[in-house]
Amino acid sequence: MCGVCGCGEGLNHSHEHDHDHQHGDVHEHHHVRAHSHSQHHHHHEHNHSHGPAHAHAPGLTPARMVQIEQDILSANNRYAGDNRRYFGERGILALNLVSSPGSGKTTLLTETVLRLKDQIAMAVIEGDQQTARDADRIRATGVPAVQINTGKGCHLDAHRVGHALESLNLPEKSLLFIENVGNLVCPSAFDLGEAHKVVILSVTEGEDKPIKYPDMFHAADLMILNKTDLLPHLDFDVAQCIRYAKQVNPKIRVLQLSAKTGEGMDNWLQWLRAELALQGIGYA
Amino acid sequence: MHEMSLCESILQTLEQQAPLQNYAKVKTVWLEIGALAGVEIEALKFSFDLVVKGSLADAAKLEIIEIPGEAWCMPCGRNVPVRQLYDECPLCGSHQIQVSGGDQMRIKELEVE
Questions:
Q1: I need a surface site. Which of A46, A88, A135, A189 has the fewest CB within 10 A?
Q2: Closest Cα partner for A173 from A238, A91, A85?
């Protein structure tokens, strides 16, 4: 076998040895003829790469195949893993709130923090394409909020959330709300390291949203049906909406509430307390 | 349009891998995209051409290997094909199904120089 590249071609090597050498001489080996397989070069000035994907260039073109086998979102998922570890080690419950624009997310948040801020340490990461309007509304309640403007982007990613965590410096056993950009499509694909995605759907939007945007309802663990105070004025079919949601995600839980009137808010606060308690248990 | 972000992630991976795998130019990218991954293939192709412009993958070809959706049906106790997340089990009509395949988005292979 050829000892240079292990290619299997080894016949007709003829080595002329000068056996008259003295001690300390170096053997000189001469190949009588070149290897017959044209695509392999054995000149040592040739820059062989012996990396994991090393391949001899076939024929004249140096093109070759490289196996990658990597998730497209692997970089995001690594950052999400870091965030999740950060939350786990501190017993912090992080929730990723997702919805279409205008579902009442920010009102739900301000009403929630007003009810809980004396009992639980809380903070909010606000994601919006532009402006700090929502973060300003949260800060008015006395709870720290960091605004991330995604600009042209349509969702938050784990890397940006990680940086926001540095400036928030959350205490242990606190509750972190990540208010994602209003968009029922894109945020579903991006893990931020949160414990749960919570999807908020208002009853003014139509009961078929769960099957129109199935990825988001599939990714969420809890659906909040908001603005229930408006139900008497609408022909929104609550039971059908819940059926659609369970069709996409049989395990999804559903809470009906009105952040504006406070109806149903107690169940939501109870869910938050229970999840926060669980978050502090069993993280290795 | 999270397809744009996906393409930016792809380009990032191609740039990271270039010195490791010893290439300077990417000619073709093969992606595995599951039917349940929530990716619009046409939007992905459109975004890809824009994102790779002027990079080491300028004018690279994008080849998509589509992976069919699959779910585990609890009542049937077996894997069944599904086309959408809200599909019912084609055997028993139940919605008690758990996605078991076809939700991936992977960079599979590259043709490089």
A1: A46
A2: A91
